[in-house]
Amino acid sequence: MYIESLGTRLRIERFKRNMTQGQVCQELKMKVSTLSQIENDKGVHFDSTIRKLLKFYGINA
């Protein structure tokens, strides 16, 4: 059984909406580098940023 990481799940949600990282970051007023780190599971510890992304994509955590 494969369990998707949070970063993978967020990337898939962005792809479903046909959005670039830049578009998401513009909407949420965040840096592209931050979103890239999150989507690539690079150990980012930005709880408020992750909550903002989950809310934006409508994902219940």
TrEMBL record:
SUPFAM superfamilies: lambda repressor-like DNA-binding domains. GO terms for molecular function: DNA binding. InterPro entries: Cro/C1-type_HTH, Lambda_DNA-bd_dom_sf. Transmembrane segments: none annotated. CDD domains: HTH_XRE (cd00093). Residues 10-42 form the HTH cro/C1-type domain. This is HTH cro/C1-type domain-containing protein. It comes from Mesobacillus boroniphilus JCM 21738.
